[in-house]
Amino acid sequence: MRKVYPDAREALAGLLRDGMTIMSGGFGLCGIPAVLIEAVRESGAKDLTVVSNNAGIDGVGLGVLLETRQIRKMVSSYVGENQTFAKQYLAGELEIEFNPQGTLAERIRAGGAGIPAFYTKTGVGTEVAKGKPTQEFDGETYVMERGLFADLALVHAYMGDHEGNLVYRRTARNFNPIMATAAKVTVVQVEHLVRPGEFDPDHIITPGVFVKRMIALPADYEKRIEQRTVRKREPAAAGGVA
């Protein structure tokens, strides 16, 4: 089965449609499938439900789909860095399903594991639990959350082989591995495409069985930084270094 495609447009050909649910990996701008998101924008698919920790920033990541109003609903944990998101939500133009971050991660993991629902204490007694079933266990109240499973998952990985086995790099791992398991079709953009056997099998995080299509990113692919934070440089000691 051929998994490697020449570009994002071809990798997503025949997969996109109006009203579908898409999972998009990343945290802030770290580990986002930006090239695949751009191909979704170019497709014109609309009325999308997007599951993602956040919605990028204005003009970057999922922010480009908000600008073109292709997203109808976001299932997210944090959206505070995107002004377009806030404007559309406050104007009643965008539906939001907020989740505590750990609950969102577990909903995705559960969906990938075939678990339709689970109970958690997080959110009990708050707006998060409104309208959801509750149950007592050992004298404590828990709220039921449904697993999440999408039509399509868009994922970013550091390295992948032609069979779809994936390795992630540090914090860019974030939501990508669990989303790769929680969709009918998973499409991945990889920074480094290698031949099978070129990395240690013990390092594989996502087995290739979950991956249907892939693209290799160009060498000049720009990984944007959402907020650059560095330490202030200490002043040099008087008289120089001994």
UniProtKB/TrEMBL annotation:
Q: Which UniProt keywords are given for this protein, alphabetically ordered?
A: Transferase
Q: Name one GO molecular function term.
A: transferase activity
Taxonomic lineage: Bacteria, Pseudomonadati, Pseudomonadota, Alphaproteobacteria, Acetobacterales
Q: Which species does this protein come from?
A: Craurococcus roseus
Residue ranges that the Swiss-Prot or TrEMBL entry lists as coiled coil: none
Q: What is this protein called?
A: CoA transferase subunit A
Q: Which NCBIfam families match?
A: pcaI_scoA_fam
